[in-house]
Amino acid sequence: MISLQSYVQGRWVAGTGDPKTLHDPATEAVLGDVRPGGIDFAGVLAHARAVGGPALRALTFPQRGELLKALSAKIHEHRDELLEIATRNGGNTRGDGKFDLDGCTGTLAYYAQLASTLPPARHLVDGDGTQLGRTPRFWGQHVHTSRPGVAVHINAFNFPAWGMGEKMACALLAGVPVVEKAGTPSALLAHRLAQIVVDSKILPEGAFQFLAGSVSGLLDLTTAMDTVAFTGSAVTGALIRGNKNMVARNVRVTLEADSINSAVLGPDVESGSDTLEQFLANVTTDMTQKAGQKCTAVRRIFVPQAMLAEVAEALVERLRAVRVGNPADGDVRMGPVASAEQLKDVRAGMQKLQAVSDTVLGGPQAIADKGYFVTPTLLRAKDASAPVLHELEVFGPCATLVAYGGSVEEAIDLVNRGGGGLVASAYSDDRAFVESLVLGIAPWHGRIWLGSEKTHGQALGPGAVLPASIHGGPGRAGGGEELGGLRGLMPYLQRTAIQGDRAVVDRAFGKGQGG
Ligand code: NAP
Fold first, then answer.
1. pTM above 0.85, yes or no
2. Mean pLDDT over the full length of the chain
3. Going from the N-terminus, what domains does the chain have, and what CATH number goes with each?
């Protein structure tokens, strides 16, 4: 039993107030608690601005990259211990835990490598310079500089390691100190990671602070140079975006919220093809990995009417083979959802979807006396237009088959009813279908993953977020954008147009001086 502490202003501080209990979601055993209060938020922000920020900004991009490389290696040294915590507090199978933890160290390592390719400067050059006057003497150049503020990172419970690592990598490389707030149900892993980061002394003092409890009140103290990056539900995201202080001061905010992700099977895909196999394998993984608690997991499965029965049967066979249980048992392929609250939400959500669907497999009924277990659940929509199908995210191992006639126009219309998504996947070897679909759904999505005969077995599925590609999406997905190589640094940098004597502008800020 451990009472989690926050690391602020150079020391570990115990929380105050009514504790929230942390559980092993497989056994309901109490593991520890988190107390919401007791933190001097003004002091936290001042420490980051006065101590951490200047120390990071004194370093060049490649030097900051060295810090990320060392952090990645240090966290990796603790891999087995961290995977054990992910199982105990997160209900993760070993595979789920690796997805989260190796995603964290991999993203830090990716940004370390990217930084090593940048010039040894403290600013980044943006594009080519341009003549702005009558002669080339008067010149313009855009540059990016580090904002002298704080990166406030608020993360969801489902990826305590990756969520922390991917946000940290971008902010620290941009030269901005971070204040990390972990999602409470799985905070044991985030807390241990924070201890490892602090104990390693790799980062300059003030560059990293960690909050275990509530952030209530902190956002009211943010100012113009700060950036708030949030991952979580659309409801909390809307509260953050609407924070009066942040609106008044134009504090930058980037939101990663929920998404009713789609998988579309093309009308050309036939029984026994590699494309169908890829589709079935990816849908099964998405539904069951991390017990479906992935923001990128597929929720709506669009299948041509003619293939519906075959696809349903094949998915049932695969989902039945997924052994559900305590992930401490190595043979288990899917653990419980993260908390009692999650279980309640997932069951209620399944019931709402059942009102407009037939249940093909599973359902909300209890499957164990102890633990927050739910069975993989496949539904089949009775009516493709029922709004709840396109509006409700059930954050668990649940997805709905939706039949469509096979035309690309209908597929585009149905997919886009999700109102903005993180990722959509499409499986087809008909190039005309794929091209039309991509052009029709791209404005509504941050990422589109294309499966085909030629790519079968070559890459991780659509549920995996890779640091080289952007992560985020418009509309209900939050409207934010993270990662995507150097694009991921943009929320923490200011772009400025420098205009003047070319000899001055080009020499100090032109290509070869910055990145
Ligand atoms: P959540 O309830 O919205 O919480 C997210 C984070 O916000 C937690 O750290 C939470 O702290 C904090 N929080 C809660 N109320 C707040 C407030 N008023 N002001 C500031 N912070 C507040 O979401 P969740 O249940 O942790 O995560 C599940 C959701 O996240 C799902 O909807 C999923 O789709 C979404 N998600 C999206 C992405 C993405 O990249 N788009 C990735 C992962 C998850 P406490 O935990 O202490 O309440």
1. yes
2. 96
3. 2-257+480-509 (3.40.605.10), 261-466 (3.40.309.10)
